[in-house]
Amino acid sequence: MPAPSTANVSAYVGFEPVIGLEVHVQLLTESKIFCSCSARFGAAPNTHVCPVCLGLPGALPVLNRRAIEFAVLAAMALNCEIRETSIFARKNYFYPDLPKGYQISQYDKPLAEHGWIEIAADRAKKKIGITRVHLEEDAGKSLHDGFSEAADKTAIDLNRSGIPLIEIVTEPDIASPDEAFDFLTRLKEIILYTGVSDCNMEEGSLRCDANVSVRPRGEIRLGTKTEVKNVNSFRFIRDALAYEIERQIEVIASGDTVVQETRLYSPGESRTYSMRSKEQAHDYRYFPEPDLLPLIVDGKWQAEIRDRLPELPEPRRLRMIDEFGITAYDAQVLTTSKSLADQFESAAKVAKNPKRVANLVQSELMGRLKARNLEIEHSPISMKGVAESADLVERGTISGKMLKDLYDLAFERSKDFPQVYEEEGRPQQTADASALEKIIDGLIAANPKQVEQYRAGKKTVAGFFVGQVMKASKGQANPQIVNQLVTKKLES
Ligand SMILES: [Zn+2]
């Protein structure tokens, strides 16, 4: 079956997809969730391990306070209710990368529930429910290449074993691959703003599984779902869902039934493959973890954590549109990351005229970035540089034309504005009144007819003289000063 050409919901005539997501996010703690081993990525295999995260008999877990705070902060940002008492549970299963034979997770009393994220669906806003956010430990990692005997052996790296994760489970509220993509984009943006994870998908800090089924439009009962696992980009998730929806519709339309199973996505072929049947549903035999007390996050602690909640992307965009008079699109670009938005706002606030900073970003910076296919994070001109240039224009030191030229030089040289301004010898538009007066005197003498018209009451003729002076100064003169001087001379 070829890859579906569209991920749009309207493509599925007569059928309606139902999608729910499970997202695992690694928390950026220094140490692991139940031991003091480093949680950093990229160390040599099996160097960040100890009896606890190796699952040796008799080793006892000690809960990392920071992991709890990060999880609560993320859950709050996702509009969840925090449960004052949550319970850790053992999820029992056998897998080579899970030395204890169970994973410590949370089951019937998770840390947080009943949240939501708002997405834009068909130009309207739509809330996607978040069923739960719970804390758990990561498993190790099986390695199939990158070591000498990889041809016929699998190696295990347990550095990742015990790294704190939150699992975010959505309600089956997502109605198309595009909505899934939008949800994940918003989710990642919010988590990044909280600073609890770097959400780096290449390093596995954010992983997504999707449950998808289809049903005839208008049907209330859910169809049989399949689970698409471990897809490592949002674009691939969208493509995998689009493929899977079309596949299920074809199965049903041809009179067959969809088999409940786990499927893997192959980005090269843009299709999914059956991995294992879920006919014997997993029985994880969950039971409360006997080595850990109930986790209590009381009202006082919740309030302390809530105080650390930053302004989130969507409210921030609305405020910036209001405060700086920028467009929704510009607000979106300027809030791409929290650090960029912070840079912009701190630069705009110290500038003489914050609105001018916003305007320069829109009118002078964005176009140049787009022409060079650069993201704003990689702009040679920093937000501080934009603010400095805005002040120079504001003070009348440089003209708009000079600013454009200096921006061009900054992009050519890949240097920030202040540096280029220095290199160019701190140019200034001509404000030397006596030089300008000399030019104006000459023009008045050479154009008696226009002078006569002006003095007869045709004040617009002043514009002719201003234009001539600007031309004579090659655009270096300050138009306001020229204007004043021309009027003064004509009226004398
Ligand atoms: Zn350890």
Any chance you could write out the topology, listing elements then pairs?
Layout: E1 15-26, H1 65-77, E2 81-82, E3 85-86, E4 88-92, E5 102-106, E6 112-121, E7 124-137, E8 141-143, E9 155-157, E10 164-170, H2 177-194, E11 206-216, E12 226-231, H3 234-253, E13 261-266, E14 271-277, E15 287-288, E16 295-296, H4 299-307, H5 313-324, H6 328-334, H7 338-350, H8 354-371, H9 383-394, H10 400-413, H11 417-423, H12 433-446, H13 448-455, H14 461-472, H15 479-491
Parallel strand pairs: 12-13
Antiparallel strand pairs: 1-10, 1-11, 2-6, 3-16, 4-5, 4-15, 6-7, 7-10, 8-9, 11-12, 13-14
Helix pairs in contact: 2-3, 5-6, 7-8, 7-9, 8-9, 10-11, 12-14, 12-15, 14-15
Describe the structure in brief.
The chain is α+β, with helices and mostly antiparallel strands. Helices cover 39% and strands 20% of the residues.
- Rg (CA only): 31 Å
Category by helix and strand content: alpha+beta
Biggest β-sheet strands, sense, barrel: 9 strands, mixed
- The helix content, as a percent range, equals 25-40%
Give me the count of strands.
16
Mean pLDDT across residues: 89
Measured by DSSP, the beta-strand proportion falls in: 15-25%
Give the low-pLDDT segments: 1-9
Strand order of the largest sheet: 2-6-7-10-1-11-12-13-14
Number of helices: 15
